[in-house]
């Protein structure tokens, strides 16, 4: 009977329940009432499905780093407000559709911090996607050529959290400027965006170009955004010196 029950669970894809039932069968010393056994099996299945959901979300996000909030360096010289970052861990900023702008020189940990917040969002069941900004714009140009542009833009709009890394390494051309405007417009007041850049926010206007569009984009991005300006020396340089 147990063998048949296990096979039926597998056919129904109740994989968490299969593992839990196997565990209960192999632990002869563990006794459950009927209610306790049902509750144990249901909780095991729920946990398994939730963990697989987090795994799917994290894989789909394609983060640059396997980053975690607990590993963020809050050394005084880095100018990172620990209380502010820990509030981000609750992901309430996503519920409020707020943005985060992270700036700082090369190697100070902007990408790691953005990825850590993204991983935290996935762990709480939120959909996130990470992009190197230049590669995103290249992909969008290609999608215009093959007719999939609207599909790609719609996918970006649906993400609870969109992370755009290495923004501003070179000025936007007309095509990229309009794509950027469309992304920000679609998400404004609906979803959250994190942008990480080597350039201070004050320089973004020049990078975007075309005053009217730059004003529109920055008006939607900046005025109510949380801002983090990381200071200090390159973390990569520090790791090399310590190795």
Task: Give a summary of the structure in a few sentences.
The protein has 243 residues and is of the alpha/beta class.
Overview of the structural elements:
The chain is α/β, with parallel strands linked by helices and 243 residues long. Helix content is 56%, strand content 11%. The chain contains 12 helices and 5 strands. It has helices spanning 2-11, 15-26, 34-61, 82-88, 92-95, 110-123, 133-146, 149-158, 174-187, 204-208, 211-221, 235-242, and strands at residues 100-103, 128-132, 161-167, 192-197, 226-229. β3, α9 (174-187) and β4 (192-197) form a beta-alpha-beta unit.
| Order of H and E elements | HHHHHEHEHHEHEHHEH
* Strand fraction: 5-15%
Identify the strand order in the major beta sheet.
2-3-4-1-5
Gap from first CA to last CA: 59 Å
Report the major sheet. 5 strands, parallel
Q: Note poorly predicted spans.
A: none
Layout of helices and strands:
Blueprint: H1 2-11, H2 15-26, H3 34-61, H4 82-88, H5 92-95, E1 100-103, H6 110-123, E2 128-132, H7 133-146, H8 149-158, E3 161-167, H9 174-187, E4 192-197, H10 204-208, H11 211-221, E5 226-229, H12 235-242
Parallel strand pairs: 1-4, 1-5, 2-3, 3-4
Helix pairs in contact: 2-3, 3-6, 7-8, 8-9, 9-11
């Amino acid at each position: 009977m147990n063998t048949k029950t296990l096979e039926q669970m597998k056919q129904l894809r109740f994989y968490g329940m299969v593992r839990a039932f196997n565990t209960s069968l192999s632990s002869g010393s563990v006794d459950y009432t009927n209610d306790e056994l049902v509750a144990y099996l249901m909780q095991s299945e729920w946990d398994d499905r939730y963990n697989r959901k987090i795994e799917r979300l994290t894989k789909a996000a394609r983060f640059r780093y396997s980053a975690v909030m607990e590993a963020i360096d809050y050394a005084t010289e880095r100018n990172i407000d620990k209380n502010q970052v820990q509030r981000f861990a609750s992901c309430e900023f996503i519920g409020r559709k707020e943005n985060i702008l992270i700036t700082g020189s090369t190697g100070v940990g902007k990408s790691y911090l953005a990825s850590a917040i993204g991983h935290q969002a996935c762990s709480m069941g939120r959909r996130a996607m990470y992009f190197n900004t230049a590669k995103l714009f290249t992909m969008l140009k290609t999608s215009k050529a093959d007719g999939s542009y609207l599909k790609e833009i719609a996918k970006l709009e649906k993400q609870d959290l969109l992370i755009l890394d290495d923004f501003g390494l070179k000025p936007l051309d007309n095509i990229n400027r309009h794509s950027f405007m469309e992304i920000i417009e679609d998400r404004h007041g609906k979803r959250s965006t994190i942008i990480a850049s080597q350039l201070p926010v004050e320089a973004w206007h020049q990078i975007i170009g075309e005053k009217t569009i730059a004003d529109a984009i920055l008006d939607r991005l900046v005025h109510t955004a949380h801002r983090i300006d990381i200071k200090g020396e390159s973390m990569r340089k520090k790791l090399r010196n310590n190795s």
